[in-house]
């Protein structure tokens, strides 16, 4: 632990995982939005 230098860790995997999670979340929100829009327009 004494040899640790802040900012020297490779975080490419964590960054890719986070970006994938954000993309997935945005897509799910869009799908839910369109489902709700469809229900609002075509249900009585």
Automatic annotation (TrEMBL):
Looking up Gene3D superfamilies in the UniProt record yields: Bacterial aa3 type cytochrome c oxidase subunit IV
> Start and end of every Cytochrome c oxidase subunit IV bacterial aa3 type domain?
8-42
**Taxonomy of the source species:** Bacteria, Pseudomonadati, Pseudomonadota, Alphaproteobacteria, Rhodobacterales
Q: Which SUPFAM superfamilies match?
A: Bacterial aa3 type cytochrome c oxidase subunit IV
Ribosomal protein among keywords: no
- What is this protein identified as? Aa3-type cytochrome c oxidase subunit IV
Q: Which residues cross the membrane?
A: 20-42
UniProt keyword Transmembrane present: yes
Q: Which Pfam families match?
A: COX4_pro_2
* Organism for this UniProt entry: Ruegeria aquimaris
Keyword list, A-Z = Membrane, Transmembrane, Transmembrane helix
Q: Which domain of life is it from?
A: Bacteria
């Amino acid at each position: 632990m004494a040899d640790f230098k802040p900012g020297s860790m490779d975080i490419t995997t964590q960054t890719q995982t986070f970006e994938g999670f954000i993309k997935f979340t945005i897509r799910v929100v869009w799908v839910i939005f369109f489902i709700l829009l469809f229900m609002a327009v075509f249900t009585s």
